């Protein structure tokens, strides 16, 4: 089996594999668009001895917000295998190759949307992003406030909303730091209306990208960076009450709406959404913001069966300002914390806390060292508005 990047000559076979695996037919105009944006260096394939494509994945170069810092991230998508090649280790080989490539490209994190969580957990990815889905009737909407701001419907326009999106996205861990191409190809490709909220001074503070069809309003993206924007956009949504029976809305898992409305008995479902993986623990920690404190350190016995550069004993040194360094060490001591790469990912990217993970057996070590981690790990919320 040969693992290599695809070439332009492999485009037709790659599309055929995707159409078969994901059960769709790409229209001719979309095919031409995909060919225009086809970047062979972003596609890894497993080929047999005759050069036939067996399996493939896309390795997308992204940046993602992590606790207020924009970091390089490798997004894995489009993982597909012809049925006759399944269960022959094709995807396993591709994932291992992708980890090496991401590390070489400085992508210290990887994210993906799994077809099955257990499958990718075997390779070190862990669930980090959950989302909540609401289904409300107009009677559940918040009471109108009639604030001094205003809402204007405008044409889809990246320049009008990109700064608002970035301000909101940087408050979460796991949100994409979008490029202009991403806005054009992925956000605006979905038909919808764009409503922009401005405060009393005329400054934009929030927006809705939404659709109304068959008496259902579907919010594709809701961004509000102030309370005035949040309430103003709800007033705007409420103005549709005579023409809709339901509102569909996806929000972060910690969204406070049920607490803020008079009747919280509307449909609410929490869904596991995306998985993440720390690709290069040393490089990742050097960019990560820990909580401030005193200069202190501890030993981490880190386990990673699929990336040997993450496997072994490391010293985590935490500065008073929250900057940190993780370095491999020959030190060995029982006074250490033992965890695998999934647990480290859950702590630093998934919003999980050390004490419950220790109680669940996912993290081992002296209670004082667990307490040190509890003090120095920041509290943050996760969210992702996009799909890839």
From TrEMBL:
UniProt entry keywords in alphabetical sequence: Acyltransferase, Transferase
EC number: 2.3.1.-
Enzyme class: transferase
SUPFAM superfamilies: Acyl-CoA N-acyltransferases (Nat) (SSF55729), SCP-like (SSF55718)
GO molecular function: acyltransferase activity
CDD domains, per the entry: NAT_SF (cd04301)
PROSITE patterns hit by this protein: GNAT
Database matches in InterPro entries: Acetyltransf_17, Acetyltransferase_Eis, Acyl_CoA_acyltransferase, Eis_dom, GNAT_dom, SCP2_sterol-bd_dom_sf
Domain N-acetyltransferase: 1-148
Keyword Acyltransferase part of the UniProt annotation: yes
Record bears the keyword Manganese: no
Protein name: GNAT family N-acetyltransferase
């Amino acid at each position: 089996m040969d693992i290599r990047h695809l070439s332009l000559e492999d485009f037709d076979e790659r599309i055929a594999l995707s159409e078969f695996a994901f059960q769709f037919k790409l229209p001719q105009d979309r095919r031409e668009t995909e060919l225009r944006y086809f970047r062979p260096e972003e596609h890894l394939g497993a080929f047999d001895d005759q050069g036939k494509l067996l399996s493939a994945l896309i390795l997308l170069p992204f940046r993602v917000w992590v606790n207020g810092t924009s970091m390089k991230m490798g997004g894995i998508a489009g993982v597909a295998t012809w049925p006759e090649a399944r269960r022959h280790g094709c995807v396993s080989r591709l994932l291992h190759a992708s980890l090496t490539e991401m590390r070489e490209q400085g992508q210290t994190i990887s994210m993906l949307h799994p077809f099955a969580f257990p499958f990718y957990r075997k390779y070190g990815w862990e669930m980090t992003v959950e989302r909540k889905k609401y289904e409300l009737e107009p009677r559940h909407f918040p009471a109108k406030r009639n604030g001094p701001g205003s809402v204007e419907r405008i044409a889809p326009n990246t320049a009008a909303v990109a700064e608002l999106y970035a301000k909101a996205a940087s408050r979460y861990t796991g949100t994409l730091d979008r490029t202009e191409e991403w806005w054009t190809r992925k956000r605006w490709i979905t038909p919808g209306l764009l409503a922009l909220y401005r405060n009393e001074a005329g400054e934009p503070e929030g927006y809705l990208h939404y659709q109304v069809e068959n008496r259902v309003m579907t919010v594709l993206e809701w961004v509000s960076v102030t309370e005035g924007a949040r309430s103003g956009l709800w007033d705007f949504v409420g103005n549709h009450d005579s023409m809709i029976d339901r509102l569909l809305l996806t929000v972060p898992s910690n969204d406070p709406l049920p607490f803020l409305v008079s009747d919280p008995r509307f449909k609410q479902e929490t869904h596991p959404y995306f998985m993440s993986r720390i690709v290069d623990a040393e490089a990742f920690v050097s960019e990560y913001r820990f909580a401030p404190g005193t200069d202190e350190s501890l030993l981490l016995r880190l386990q990673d069966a699929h990336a040997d550069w993450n496997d072994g004993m490391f010293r985590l040194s935490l500065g008073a300002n929250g900057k940190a360094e993780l370095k491999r060490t020959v030190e060995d001591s029982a006074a250490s914390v033992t965890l695998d790469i999934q647990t480290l990912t859950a702590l630093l990217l998934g919003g999980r806390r050390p004490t419950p993970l220790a109680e669940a057996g996912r993290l081992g070590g002296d209670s004082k060292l667990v307490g040190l981690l509890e003090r120095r790990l920041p509290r943050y919320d996760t969210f992702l508005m996009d799909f890839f």
